[in-house]
Amino acid sequence: MFTSLLTFLLLSQISFGQQNTSPYEWKWKRDGIWTGAAFAASAGGLLIISNKDSYSDEDLAQIRSEIDEINFMDRWVAGNYSENANKISDIPFALSFAAPFALLLDKKTRNHSGQLFGIYIESLATTSALFTITAGLSNRSRPYTYGTDAPLEQRKSITATRSFYSGHVAATATATFFAAKVYQDFNPDSPVIPYIYAGAAILPAAVGYYRMQAGQHFLTDVMLGYTLGALAGYYIPELHKKKNQSLSFQPIMDQNFYGENYQAISLTYQF
To answer: Residue 73, class by beta-carbon neighbours within 10 Å (0-12 exposed, 13-18 middle, 19+ buried)?
Structure first.
């Protein structure tokens, strides 16, 4: 008599032991649109930058005359220029992009490398979009334009107009904080998490220091780049976390002790 009756039963299945599942979810429609829009915005920002006007001799003279009007946080950087410091800043900058690939050394993250690579690209694309649009719409002179040590051609170039804000620092912070956040989410009880975050914080700070010594950015440029990059690296993976990692529902069909078929909903809780 129960063969054709739809019966909803609540069955509890409690799984002990840790499964190698990802705490994140990737949705092709949502994330594809997000990433594509970020790349498009980056291209738009680069187009805006390319159409900016370069400085003339009169512009440079005006900039140098306004050196005393710079706020106290940035004043000490004005006039800096060092090609050597500029080259050194590129070292931790380049190393930072490899930081997330160190996650491949961890078995838990390695099993979900494709998913993590997608979220990583999405994070970098978001940071790139924010930076290029801001750099294109703003017109803050680089610190080296306040002095005469940098080559004249460099001081008059379009790149001299986009000090605000530091893209090097933003991208570095995105990469390092992404790596730290992902490791933490896959290994929440690991005792090395504080050290990983310390490394994540130091690398973009080093880039920022040398960018200022090179006369490429002011302190406030570095601070904003650091903040936005770290937020993207940390919170974009956070936004991809599954809403409830331990509780799941799924329909099942089976046969009871008396040989009667039934349909049910299985509640699975994993811890």
So the answer is: exposed
Domain boundaries, the chain: 28-245
Average pLDDT of the chain is 86
Q: Burial letters for 48-68: b for 16+ Cβ neighbours within 10 Å, e otherwise?
A: ebeeeeebeeebbeebbeeee
Burial label, 257 (beta-carbon count in 10 A; 0-12, 13-18, 19+) = exposed
Q: Across the strands, what pairs with 250?
A: 266
Tell whether the model's pLDDT for residue 243 goes beyond 90. Answer: no
**What distance, in Å, lies between the first and last C-alpha atoms of the chain?**
39
* Nearest to 209, CA basis, from 80, 61, 30: 80
Q: What is the DSSP string of 105-119?
A: GSHHHHTTHHHHHHH
Nearest to 75 by CA among 220, 266, 202: 220
User: What pLDDT sits at residue 104?
Assistant: 87
Contact 160, 141 (CB under 8 A): yes
With pLDDT > 90 as the criterion, what percentage of the chain qualifies? Answer: 75
Given pLDDT bands bounded at 50, 70 and 90, which one contains residue 99? confident
Least confident of 19-23, 96-100, 193-197, 226-230: 19-23
Q: 98-101: long-range contacts at Cβ-Cβ below 8 A with a sequence spacing of 24 or more?
A: 99/175, 99/176, 99/178, 99/179, 99/200, 99/203, 100/175, 100/178, 100/179, 100/182
- What is the number of residues in the chain? 271
Residue 5 has phi, psi (to 5 degrees) of -90, 130
Strands, E, within 68-182: which ranges?
A: none
| pLDDT tens, position by position, 188-229 | 999 999 999 999 999 999 999 999 999 999 999 999 999 999
Q: Using alpha carbons, select from 263, 216, 257, 262 the residue that is nearest to residue 77.
A: 216
